[in-house]
Amino acid sequence: MVNSLDLPKTPADTRVVVAMSGGVDSSVVAALLKSQGYEVIGITLQLYDHGEATHRRGACCAGQDIHDARRVAERLDIPHYVLDYESRFRDEVMARFAESYLAGETPIPCVECNRSIKFAELLETARDLGADVLATGHYVVTRPMPQGGRGLYRAADPDRDQSYFLYATTQEQLDFLRFPLGDMLKPDVRKLAHQFGLAIAEKPDSQDICFVPSGRYTEVIERLKPGAVTPGDIVDHNGRVLGRHNGIVHYTVGQRRGLGLSVGEPLYVIKLDAERGEVIVGPRELLATRTISLNAVNWLGDQPLEGDAVYEVAARVRSTRKPRPALLRATLDGAEVTLLDPEEGVAPGQACVLYDSAGPDARVLGGGTIRAAARPQSTRLGRPAGMMSRTGVLPARSLP
């Protein structure tokens, strides 16, 4: 006999730490678990100078959000603690965010925050408090696996699924984490917030990067790295200078608008060359990508990702896109993904998340940071590796 959190205890004997951001989702998690009889402790992380963002909507971890989390905890009559991780957050997330943009990448700070702060420091704090599990308001699902441990799956609500941002969660962390909202739809979660009498029931969802109050991330980069943003040339894919730019941080691969060019044809950002300080543009067909190199790979599959074997997977190269059929193989410094159908706008610094299928109930097999994307041959872009052949390699097999 196990409880609703898959633990062999009664709810009354189970201590749960809930990560409370002050939003609807995490507040409902705390209320739901308390109503089921669990011993609930709420923890909120202060991740930056929240005084700058007090009363500002659209971002998490701000002053008003901490206040909202505290009010919910009082309503539920549960202990609540606010932990100051500003210094760690600045070094591990904000500084890396700026450095990545300056290197010509398009980073995802939420992935790094989950990896370095929320599912590392917060998880250790939960253990120090004697918790059996750490629960969050993320929209993903975990389930016990036949061979032991827990598998990570896409959420029931495809519009809310956050598996793309959680691919870097390790197996050890997954075994300690619980996501009670993974099988729910957002409207049902808001209904529960009303039923529990939570004042934040209609609070808007977080939209911004939490440390970019204005939405203008370049201002944050210039504040963190004074003088690092420098102008340079905008060149076409054959090296012809077409104009000037005020810093490569203002651009991302796939961008069309805001280039300030009049050349008689639509041009897109094909590559950002940080060493040369160049924004390289070209026609849309040069955005097509088949082969992607990954580093910082986190693997959650049942079989080791190693050797010369080629695996059939589904790859997701942006949070707003669906998983697409692909082939995966290990490399000496990471992994290589070959898309069966090319994708446009694949940008270094983004994540490539791997699933066992393209379906709505797919299991997350892991993923990595996009290091490079091979595109069609051109003078400045180099020659791609091309489509991987199955000839001469071990037969492709499905995972897990």
Overview of this structure, please?
With 400 residues, the chain is an alpha/beta fold. It folds into three domains: 11-195, HUPs (Rossmann fold, 3-Layer(aba) Sandwich); 230-285, SH3 type barrels (Roll); 289-398, Beta Barrel (Elongation Factor Tu (Ef-tu), domain 3), CATH 2.40.30. It has helices at residues 24-35, 63-76, 86-102, 109-118, 121-128, 171-176, 186-195, 217-224, and strands at residues 15-19, 39-46, 80-84, 133-135, 140-144, 150-154, 177-178, 232-236, 241-245, 268-273, 278-282, 289-299, 311-316, 324-331, 334-343, 351-355, 364-374, 397-398. The strands form four sheets. Strands 12-15-14-13-16-17 form a six-stranded antiparallel beta barrel. A five-stranded parallel beta sheet has the order 3-2-1-4-7, with helices on both faces. The longest helix is centred in the N-terminal third of the chain and has 17 residues, at 86-102.
Question: How many runs of DSSP E, i.e. beta strands?
Answer: 18
Structural class: alpha/beta
State the end-to-end CA separation.
28 Å
Main sheet overview:
6 strands, antiparallel, barrel
| Spatial sequence of strands, sheet with the most strands | 12-15-14-13-16-17
Helix content: 10-25%
Order of helices and strands: EHEHEHHHEEEHEHHEEEEEEEEEEE
Fraction in beta strands: 25-35%
What name does the CATH topology of the largest domain carry?
Rossmann fold
Protein name: tRNA-specific 2-thiouridylase MnmA
GO molecular function: ATP binding; methyltransferase activity; tRNA binding; tRNA-uridine 2-sulfurtransferase activity
Enzyme class: transferase
InterPro entries: MnmA-like, MnmA-like_C, MnmA-like_central, MnmA-like_central_sf, Rossmann-like_a/b/a_fold
